[in-house]
Amino acid sequence: MGKRVVTEAKRQRRRPTRQGQVLSEQLFVDTALRLLAQEDGQGLSVRRLAAALGTDPSTLYRYFRGMDDLTLAIGDELMRRAVAGWRATGRWRSDLRELGLRVHASYLAHPQAAVLTASRVSGRIHEVAADEVILGILRTAGFGDRDAVRIYHAFVDQSLAFAVLDAASLALPRTAREADEAMWQTTYARLPAATHPHIAATSRHLIAHMNTSAYPSALDMLLDSAQAQLADVQGAVGDQ
Amino acid sequence: MGKRVVTEAKRQRRRPTRQGQVLSEQLFVDTALRLLAQEDGQGLSVRRLAAALGTDPSTLYRYFRGMDDLTLAIGDELMRRAVAGWRATGRWRSDLRELGLRVHASYLAHPQAAVLTASRVSGRIHEVAADEVILGILRTAGFGDRDAVRIYHAFVDQSLAFAVLDAASLALPRTAREADEAMWQTTYARLPAATHPHIAATSRHLIAHMNTSAYPSALDMLLDSAQAQLADVQGAVGDQ
DNA sequence: GACGCGATGGCAACGGTGTTGGCGTAAGGC
DNA sequence: GCCTTACGCCAACACCGTTGCCATCGCGTC
Asked: SUPFAM superfamilies per the record (chains A, B) (predicted)?
């Protein structure tokens, strides 16, 4: 899975493309992310990626098994960027919070990529490294192995899940996004209190939350629960 | 957004297709879900859907604006099925838990559909109805409007987000799913303790959690936190 | 220094996708 | 009985991921 088509040893000999680019796996990934980041770019495709590199679509298959393989590589690159430069402070709760927010932000910076990639467990190097860090934080904080794994699982999947969900709406074509927004205004703001009293009573708050992610909120609630569990087991205090 | 192409009033006159089917919006949605549920079906496409109905691909556009519109209709149908037959018990915590699990399960029953649809805020009738119910549960339980909306937001988005994430891995083609599974076994089970001590120490628990969703766990943690907040505000007890 | 061979880039094609315009026809309304 | 209109169908378009095939370049070997 995700094995390179060509061994690294042979990668010495390179031929520049017709327009002078020297291709590499990393260059494909970087260019793909650049394409996906373009505001009104129509998304990633093998053909557009090849065009951006001034080469032929078929050339991609010299470096990746296919689109799926490229997708996994993009996901791992996002994870690398998410934790790049991060340093642990030793306070488990704020460390976890910071890590979660970083992953979330990294994916949101490339919404289209997130949608493509985040559902895959790639097992690539940077993802494994992140998993080791998170488990380390929890076990060092005093959680037992069973609890640590359970919280790790909930934490990681929650971060990825919100990243996918939030990225998915960002990744919508602008027309669809505007339509959704208008729908919210007209539907939820003007619902009669007779039929939908609770929505009508809270519509002001609902609209305020409309375009903001619920992830920080959900993350804090997860950490609340974890901290309470830790306090239950030990009589001691957790972090901060 | 999602407005029908043809007014309902005109829908009286129907002509059967060449193979005798009488088409309708509902029939398209049901057939699409049936296609998506097929174990080794290659997913949904306009052409396959048309073929399953014994009609022409272009006929779909008489009933929906396009694939995106059909997608929203499918999502709303999933929501309808999720809450069909549900009854409130009056205990807010177990009511919310039951609702969350139902939505999650409903989406997982049609993974491909979930991937397509759950990222869209459709604002269709069954989704609005579910929102009203959830807000009602929270406000009746004693949460203030601000807190109710915040918890509603986290609860709904978390349920959808996990549904998408979990469905996405279920929706993978069988080859990719088996590859991911093998990758877990070889990567996480046999990682040397020297380089990855925390993964190595907990690998038994990690593997055990591998194919199970973290959603129930995360849901309980969210409800934990909400209950603690409620207990903070009132001196009273919440539910159960 | 010439050769051979394998790695690489480019061309053309295949089967698939969502979508559109136009044509015939059958069903109501008047 | 006519006319309008909704509907099913055909053909075509542009795009997608993928795959043989061929030309060419670069390095190791003799």
From this structure: Homeodomain-like, Tetracyclin repressor-like, C-terminal domain
